[in-house]
């Protein structure tokens, strides 16, 4: 889209390199590029999400639904890119723009979800916007629910020109703790952190608990 035509939820990024149709097209193309056409490269990441037993997930920054499709059937995605939301819906997923989410009293009520997933989003945003994003959506997660933050490691960070800030374990922990979460654990996936210098699909993962 050439411009956003909605009033977003506080903390939701607007404009920029991830907001228009060309970014959605890029996501779809990357899903089907190279070795991904021949091998089930997403299998380890699907397994990683499922083993966390996240229940009903609010996938913040869901994009075209790559992770959302591996969450529970009653999970919901939200994204600031209208074209990405339309693509996720075309795949049979439940996704909303930020304004649609906020306008729906059932979706935005306190404690409506068991967990929140923020995967490959924080590296696209300035720190203050990340803080606002967390504060804006955390009330939708029930007490005792999980928050999973995932960001790319060094090689993955370098691979995308829309990344603006490197978010490692220390940055994830700081953000989570400032948001009032209790950090349950952090880990590198699927390989040890050293591999992330060359393997662009290695991820930092933080699992936190809502008080």
From TrEMBL:
It comes from the Bacteria. Pfam families: Methyltransf_23 (PF13489). Signal peptide: none annotated. GO terms for biological process: methylation. Keywords: Methyltransferase, S-adenosyl-L-methionine, Transferase. Gene3D superfamilies: Vaccinia Virus protein VP39. Residues 1-22 are annotated as: Disordered. Its EC number is 2.1.1.222, 2.1.1.64. One of its GO terms (molecular function) is 2-polyprenyl-6-hydroxyphenol methylase activity. This is Class I SAM-dependent methyltransferase. It comes from Kitasatospora paranensis.
